[in-house]
Amino acid sequence: MKQELVFEAPRRAKPPRHFADLDGPARAAAVADLGLPAFRAKQLANQYYGRLVGEPRLMTDLPAALREQVGEALFPDLLSALREIGCDAGETRKTLWRAVDGTTFESVLMRYPERNTVCISSQAGCGMACPFCATGQGGLTRNLSTAEIVEQVRRAAATMRDEFDGRLSNIVFMGMGEPLANYNRVLAAVRQIIDAPPHGFGISARSVTVSTVGLAPAIRRLADERLGVTLALSLHAPDDELRDTLVPVNNRWAIAETLDAARYYADVTGRRVSVEYALIRDVNDQPWRADLLGKKLRAAFGPLVHVNLIPLNPTPGSQWDASPKPVEREFVRRVRAAGVSCTVRDTRGSEIAAACGQLAADGG
């Protein structure tokens, strides 16, 4: 029996309008509506994106008499941190956020010697129903607003600067939700992430990764935006029979169509596609599947593909487990033998349920 996929989020009250929901002209109009001169819009943008200040009361170049008015109109407090949990000697931190309507979702900040990455959510929950993923099993609550997405980035960047004297370098849309099912808001957030101050945070497009389970038309649409971000395709099986079960969206866009769309992305952008593959013991880790994966990817992409093998991070109640290390090593060897680049992803955050597939916000 095929699982029903939910692409549209249930209707809920909209989050309040925030400065980060607005593009340049809309910011100028909002400032004008407050009776303020046009230069205030750029001033606010410099504070928010350049100085990472999200509260007008801390914007010292804004007259004190205006701060409350601007705060109420353009900078509502969208998110509050309900809980923060750390592991990996403090190098990994998961934050549970609560939105103004009570919706909860998670993001994960990971510090490495050569980079600092935040894994952000694009939806509260997920409607893709992948059975090995805690988020997918929880169902979809709602799409996040552009500002709710952007605020995860701003706060992570401020944390890196203020607590660690560092700089946020990488953004991955691999938290809760299917980014391409919230296309317009994710696109607006990506633009703010990669645009230079005062219009955005100025993070390189090459350092931004947008993941998808394979919404083929949206992959092609993203390619045509020509933003140059990295596309990560969550494949998890090389054959339709198994992928129909592991990634139910495959019932709508089968592997051939999904790979064709991802190849279009590679052709248009010139960027190598990352293929994500959660390795599950006795489910998708057989040698013949490694061979088939390598063969299909080599035929579809040539050198413009890289396989990220992810040792399965078990979730509570799951009947599945990670593949044994010898099986994992053989899988890597066979994919590489087909002429496809393949590595095993570092399983950061598994002990605090912050690793890939484990995010399942619980506001309790």
UniProtKB/TrEMBL annotation:
UniProt cofactor(s): [4Fe-4S] cluster
An annotated GO cellular component: cytoplasm
Reaction(s) this enzyme catalyzes, per UniProt: adenosine(2503) in 23S rRNA + 2 reduced [2Fe-2S]-[ferredoxin] + 2 S-adenosyl-L-methionine = 2-methyladenosine(2503) in 23S rRNA + 5'-deoxyadenosine + L-methionine + 2 oxidized [2Fe-2S]-[ferredoxin] + S-adenosyl-L-homocysteine; adenosine(37) in tRNA + 2 reduced [2Fe-2S]-[ferredoxin] + 2 S-adenosyl-L-methionine = 2-methyladenosine(37) in tRNA + 5'-deoxyadenosine + L-methionine + 2 oxidized [2Fe-2S]-[ferredoxin] + S-adenosyl-L-homocysteine
GO MF: 4 iron, 4 sulfur cluster binding; metal ion binding; rRNA (adenine(2503)-C2-)-methyltransferase activity; rRNA binding; tRNA (adenine(37)-C2)-methyltransferase activity; tRNA binding
EC number, UniProt record: 2.1.1.192
Keywords tagged on the record: 4Fe-4S, Cytoplasm, Disulfide bond, Iron, Iron-sulfur, Metal-binding, Methyltransferase, rRNA processing, S-adenosyl-L-methionine, Transferase, tRNA processing
Enzyme class per UniProt: transferase
Active site annotation, chain numbering: E106 (proton acceptor), C356 (s-methylcysteine intermediate)
Residues binding [4Fe-4S] cluster: C126, C130, C133
Note describing how the cofactor binds: Binds 1 [4Fe-4S] cluster. The cluster is coordinated with 3 cysteines and an exchangeable S-adenosyl-L-methionine.
Covalent S-S links between cysteines: C119-C356
Major location category of this protein: cytoplasm
Radical SAM core domain: residues covered: 112-351
Pfam families for this protein: Radical_SAM
Residues that bind S-adenosyl-L-methionine: G177, E178, S211, S234, L235, H236, N313
Localization annotation: Cytoplasm
Primary role: Specifically methylates position 2 of adenine 2503 in 23S rRNA and position 2 of adenine 37 in tRNAs.
Note: Reaction proceeds by a ping-pong mechanism involving intermediate methylation of a conserved cysteine residue.
Family of this protein: Belongs to the radical SAM superfamily. RlmN family.
Protein name: Probable dual-specificity RNA methyltransferase RlmN
Lineage: Bacteria, Bacillati, Actinomycetota, Actinomycetes, Mycobacteriales
